[in-house]
């Protein structure tokens, strides 16, 4: 809701807001959509990756604005990963001769094969590119800070860039361990460590909100405005009802 308020509606000036909106939506679905985490995890990883690429390019050319291009990239990621997961609808789940339902496919075992694929697609590929592009972002932030000390010029997209670096760092340290355990230790008995790592993985998807509050000034201001507005509305409505009641009694 906050990313759709007036402050963030000028997406032509900051097209990266589209990536932040998409990540927020996927975080909600992965937390509250039953079994959707298996299908949306790879989308989330690649959208975060393209978010890194877009931010890196904006730091190099802060005047550039490619809103339609960013929307096209997000749409292509959603379509491609949907097609990537589409085989579940075709091959997964079948009836055995005894009437029971097998969640695997008739031609091959989906698990643990899918865990290995998920590790590569969801973690390893984004990890490599995120490290590359975030290293570039950190380099440009340090370089522009040195220039700012001399020229006293403003750094565009600096806040969003810092937020991105922290977000991707949390993505890497909070999701990779649980995915590795699921891929390579699927046949072993579930331990307390595996449960803790799995909990940390899902905890990552609720870290965006407090992270934006701490590092993103405009987001924090809009959130405070929204909370204050709701509190004021609750105070005004009962007062209006009381005034209307008094007027009705006086007329009678």
Q: Which helices and strands appear, and what pairs or packs with what?
A:
Elements lengths: L16 H16 L4 H24 L6 H19 L1 H5 L2 E2 L5 E2 L10 H39 L6 H27 L7 H13 L3 H8 L1 H35 L1
Antiparallel strand pairs: 1-2
Helix pairs in contact: 1-2, 2-3, 2-5, 2-6, 5-6, 6-7, 6-8, 8-9
List keywords for this structure.
Rhopdopsin 7-helix transmembrane proteins; G-protein coupled receptors family 1 profile domain-containing protein; 252 residues; membrane; two-stranded antiparallel ribbon; transmembrane
Structure explained in plain terms:
This protein has 252 residues and is an all-alpha fold. It has one domain: Rhodopsin 7-helix transmembrane proteins (Rhopdopsin 7-helix transmembrane proteins), CATH 1.20.1070.10. Helix content is 74%, strand content 2%. It has nine helices and two strands, in the order ααααββααααα. The chain has helices at residues 17-32, 37-60, 67-85, 87-91, 113-151, 158-184, 192-204, 208-215, 217-251, and strands at 94-95, 101-102. The protein has a two-stranded antiparallel sheet with strand order 1-2. A hairpin with a 5-residue loop joins β1 (94-95) and β2 (101-102). α8 (208-215) packs across α9 (217-251). The longest helix is centred in the middle third of the chain and has 39 residues, at 113-151. The protein is globular, with a radius of gyration of 24 Å. The protein starts with 16 loop residues before the first helix and ends with a helix. The model is unreliable at 60-65 and 149-156 (pLDDT under 50). The chain crosses the membrane at residues 71-97, 117-142, 162-187, 199-216.
């Amino acid at each position: 809701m906050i990313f759709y308020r007036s402050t963030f509606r000028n997406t032509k000036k900051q097209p990266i807001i589209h990536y932040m909106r998409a990540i927020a939506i996927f975080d909600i679905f992965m937390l509250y959509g039953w079994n959707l985490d298996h299908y949306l995890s790879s989308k989330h990883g690649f959208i975060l990756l393209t978010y890194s690429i877009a931010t890196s390019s904006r730091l190099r050319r802060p005047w550039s604005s490619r809103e339609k291009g960013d929307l096209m990239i997000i749409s292509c990621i959603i379509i491609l990963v949907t097609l990537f997961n589409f085989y579940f609808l075709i091959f997964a789940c079948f009836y055995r001769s005894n009437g029971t339902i097998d969640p695997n496919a008739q031609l091959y075992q989906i698990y643990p094969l899918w865990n290995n694929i998920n590790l590569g697609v969801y973690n390893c590929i984004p990890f490599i590119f995120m490290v590359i592009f975030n290293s570039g972002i950190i380099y440009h932030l340090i370089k522009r800070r040195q220039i700012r000390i001399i020229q006293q010029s403003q750094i565009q997209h600096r806040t969003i860039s810092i937020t991105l670096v922290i977000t991707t760092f949390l993505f890497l340290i909070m999701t990779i361990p649980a995915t590795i355990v699921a891929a390579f230790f699927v046949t072993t008995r579930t331990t307390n460590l595996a449960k803790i790592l799995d909990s940390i993985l899902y905890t990552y998807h609720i870290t965006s909100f407090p992270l934006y509050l701490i590092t993103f000034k405009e987001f924090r201001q809009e959130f405070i405005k929204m909370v204050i507005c709701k509190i004021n509305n609750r105070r005004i409505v009962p007062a209006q009802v009381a005034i209307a009641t008094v007027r009705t009694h006086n007329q009678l």
